[in-house]
Amino acid sequence: MSVNHYENFPVGSLAMPRRLRKPIHAIYAFARTADDIADEGEADNAARLQGLQDLAAELDRIAADQAPQTPLMQRLQNEALRPFALPLEPFYDLLSAFKQDVVKKRYQNFGELVDYCRRSANPVGRILLHLYGETDPVSIARSDGICTALQLINFWQDVAVDWQKERVYIPQDDLQKFGVSEAQIAARQADFAFQRLMAYESDRAFQMLKAGSPLGTTLKGRIGFELRMIVVGGQLILQKLDGCKYDVFTQRPVLDKKDWLMIVKRALLKK
Predict the structure, then answer these.
(1) Are 148 and 121 in contact (CB under 8 A)?
(2) Could you tell me if 52 and 38 are in contact, meaning their C-beta atoms sit under 8 angstroms apart?
(3) Alpha-carbon distance 157 to 242, whole Å?
(4) pLDDT category, 1, cuts 50, 70, 90?
(5) Residue 258: its pLDDT value, please?
(6) pLDDT, position 260
(7) What is the pLDDT, as a whole number, of residue 226?
(8) Which class for 163: exposed (0-12), middle (13-18), buried (19 or more C-beta within 10 A)?
């Protein structure tokens, strides 16, 4: 089940093994809380950064074998970190990305954007792999590719939404390369130049998704099935972007009930 901000986090999916649902909900609660601190409400930047730093301080307490002070972090420690001996680095990385969202609104090149995805998206996959007990380098690399691709796909869905938040995730170098200005985004113009730009960015995401997709077959059982559904869902969003000629200003491509039936069918066939 996808949930608003953290759309690619498999919260409460029936495909997830029962033993993992409680830790996954605790991890999601942490990620969602941090995301909301960075993005929601009317707080100023200083307050947002302080809220994220408070969460980092709780991680510091856990790292020092001290009891966290908030129910959120106590739950994270008791239901996820301690029972599964999860590393803290991915949680620190998530907070680093959320802090960056508060202060950084533009990305000069694709490398900068991928570095952001390394901290905003890849930690989710790495945490889940630790829960599954699959931490070999190949699995981690494939997971990173899938997570970065999903984050990029979400950006391309949300060009118009992010503009309202004064954010542009399309690299500035690529805007210039394809002759697209921020004024054009503000004017909601999906002309041929914009379509070429978005096709280029979407193909990058597709290639990353494709490179990571074998992980869905090497991970067995429900876990592999869950991942195959996620990959197919990402592919369908890319198809929908192409189908609407990348006019994300008049319609935001989303998955409907018919798509989910197709996702389940394709995921079953790819095992």
Answers:
(1) yes
(2) yes
(3) 11
(4) very low
(5) 85
(6) 84
(7) 85
(8) middle
CA-to-CA distance for 150 and 142, rounded, in angstroms?
12
pLDDT digits (tens, 9 = 90+) for 79-122: 999 999 999 999 999 999 999 999 999 999 999 999 999 999 99
Q: What is the pLDDT of residues 220-250, one digit of tens each?
A: 888 888 889 999 999 999 999 999 999 999 9
The structure's pTM equals 0.90
- What percent of the chain shows pLDDT beyond 70? 93
Inter-residue long-range contacts of 236-245, CB under 8 Å, 24+ positions, other chains counted? 236/262, 236/263, 237/153, 237/157, 238/153, 238/202, 238/205, 238/206, 238/209, 241/156, 241/157, 241/198, 241/202, 242/199, 242/202, 245/190, 245/195
Structure tokens at 67: 């009891």
Contact in structure between 30 and 72 (CB atoms under 8 Å) = yes
Tell me, letter by letter, the H, E, C secondary structure of the chain.
Answer: CCECCECCCCCCCCCCCHHHHHHHHHHHHHHHHHHHHHHCCCCCHHHHHHHHHHHHHHHHHHHCCCCCCCHHHHHHHHHHHHHHCCCCHHHHHHHHHHHHHHHCCECCCHHHHHHHHHHHCHHHHHHHHHHHCCCCHHHHHHHHHHHHHHHHHHHHHCHHHHHHCCCECCCHHHHHHCCCCHHHHHCCCCCHHHHHHHHHHHHHHHHHHHHHCCHHHHCCHHHHHHHHHHHHHHHHHHHHHHHCCCCCCCCCCCCCHHHHHHHHHHHHHCC
